[in-house]
Structures are given as C-alpha cells and as structure tokens.
Amino acid sequence: MYGGDLDWRSVADEAARATSAGEALEVVTLALTKHADASEDERLPLDLLRIDLLFELDRVDDAIAAARKLRERGLITPLLAQRLGELLVEAGEDEEGKRVFSEIVEYDPSGEYTRRLLGDIFLRHGWFQEAYRQYQDLVSLSAAPTDVIRMARAAAGAGRVDEGLRLLRKVIGGEGRPGADDPRRFARLHAAVLLGELLASDDEQLPRAKLERELDRLQLFDTPTTWTILTWADLEHDLTLGVEPLTPDADKAQIEAAKKAALRISNGRNAGDTGLWAIQTGGLDDLVVRHRSPVPARPVSFERLTITWDGERFTAKRELGTIAARAAREREAPAATPSDDDDDSAATE
C-alpha cells in the first residue's frame, strides 16, 4: 500500500476500517512517515485526517499544534481554516477562531460558496450577528431564496425576530412552484417556527392573538391539524425523527414494530438545506431525533417544536436537545449492532 506514490484515498480507507481512532491514527501517521518526501499537496488530505483523529482522541492541543504547523508552512486552505478554527473554539479561543474562520472568504471574496460556508459556520456556533453579515453579503450575490431564509434565521437568532419574519415574508411572496422543493413553503415553515417559539414561551406580555393570526395566514393550518417541526443550526447535517436503535437481541416483534414506526414519519420533508424537517402530524412523542446519515464527530443541537390548531386556538410545545458526537456515543454504547436504521442515530434530550 505504501510503496510508490502516496495514495491518500487508500490510506483513508484503511483508517476508516480501523476499530478505534487510535488505530486509525497509527495508520495515517505511518503513511505520512513512509512518504515524508511526498509533496505537501499530496500529504495535505492525510495531514487533515490526522488532525481530525487527534481531535477525536481529545488531544486538542496536539491537533492545534499540527494545524498551526501546516499554516506556518503556507498551507492554509479553506479546509484547514475550518479545522483550525474549530479546534481554537474547542480550546476556548473564540475570537482567534473567528479570525481563522474568516480567512475562508479570502480565497474567493466574491464567491457564493465561501460566503455561505462562513455564514453557516458562524450560525452553527451561535454567532448570529457575524452569520447575518455573511448572509447579507451572500444574498447580494445570489439572491437565492434559501440564502434569504438563512439570513432570516440569523436575524432572529440575534434577537431581531420581526426582521426575520419580514425576510421570510419576502420569500413567501416571491417566485416558486408548488412541490417538495418550493422555497415559499420552506419560508412558511420557518415563519411558523419563529411564531411557535413565541407562543411556547411564558411571556405574558406577548400579543398572543396577533401571533395566532400570523400563524393562520401561513396557509399551513387550513383545517385543525398538528405540525411537528425540527430545526438545527448545523446546516451540514440533516436530522429526522425515528425509533431508538434496536438492541442486538431484538426479536421479530420488535423489528416489525420499528418498521411500522418508521412508516409514521415517511411523509416528513426537509426544507432544502436550511436546517428544518417537518411533518404534518402529531402524536410522535415516542420517537427520537436522529441523524439521517452517519453520526458526525461533533454534537448537533436541535429544537423540536409541535404546533397544534384545534379549530379555535393555537398551542405550541418546544423542546431542546443535543445528539452526542460519534466518539461520545461509541464510548457510551460500544456494543451497538447495525440495523435497518443503522444510518441514523438517536438523540439525548
């Protein structure tokens, strides 16, 4: 494997098959040692993987040192800026992390991708005003409805809910075609979240009648119904509802029950890449929030909102939770067995 040119994909595949992060780190380190003469561009993917593995092993200081060494050699790239920025935030150096993250846009100041990426990073960390500024620049470049929705989320997160709703109304009144990918529907659901959050609060000073009228205008509640909506700020990932993972000794009845439960959420839909999943039904309290894909190396926080209209008034229930990172989950449940739902993960609420 390690003779000739450095085949970083083969090394990464072998590391992925390792039974632990420590073993994977040994594989990557050995390959980098054997190919010390390879060009820095050839080595960079494995250098980044090594940094990720050090972080997964809670060796944050070592990971930061490795990332800074690459940066000092002039190898700073958008990917490395992300890695180093995340590590600095993990170490409590938020301001330095923001500065490193901001280098992402230096590679393409007028590019939509870099602005969106930086805005998404800031949003994920709860730096809403910084995210808002990036999305504001992004919207001036793209004018994409989903980017306006991002901007609305950042405005609301910064405490400007009225501005968030105003931006969403622009999308609702804009162009689109009815269907699963209609941005107008995405905006209606996000507006329902902002209004539902207010209804779910204990603030008696809020104009509840006005909030309910605003909800009614969204055309999501034409008849008495319930919406169950998930939102999350880590837009790199997708969440959904599902059943708890089956245990290794699950019997046929349990397996069948899990399949039936999965059918209950089959009509759920993502609102594009804006961090929202929704289904028009209630009675799902027995289901948990899960990833739609393999568990990532970082925790993902979410909000679960249930909004009901009984024909006379609206009620809303709000719950917050976090899905643990991959490494934490592996430490908690080392004996997990694959199942039909293996590509999802349960939440810890």
Can you describe what's shown?
Strands 3-4-1-6-7 form a five-stranded antiparallel beta sheet, covered by helices on one side. The longest helix is centred in the middle third of the chain and has 18 residues, at 183-200. The protein folds into two domains: 1-107, Serine Threonine Protein Phosphatase 5, Tetratricopeptide repeat; 177-332, no CATH class. Helix 3 runs antiparallel to helix 4 (60-72). The chain contains 14 helices and seven strands. With 349 residues, the protein is of the alpha+beta class. The model is unreliable at 328-344 (pLDDT under 50). The protein has helices at residues 8-17, 21-34, 40-56, 60-72, 78-90, 94-102, 112-124, 128-142, 145-157, 161-172, 183-200, 208-216, 252-263, 326-332, and strands at residues 225-232, 239-242, 269-270, 276-279, 288-291, 300-309, 314-323. The protein is globular and about 70 Å long.
Topology:
Blueprint: H1 8-17, H2 21-34, H3 40-56, H4 60-72, H5 78-90, H6 94-102, H7 112-124, H8 128-142, H9 145-157, H10 161-172, H11 183-200, H12 208-216, E1 225-232, E2 239-242, H13 252-263, E3 269-270, E4 276-279, E5 288-291, E6 300-309, E7 314-323, H14 326-332
Antiparallel strand pairs: 1-4, 1-6, 2-5, 3-4, 6-7
Helix pairs in contact: 1-2, 2-3, 3-4, 3-5, 4-5, 5-6, 7-8, 8-9, 9-10, 9-11, 10-11, 11-12
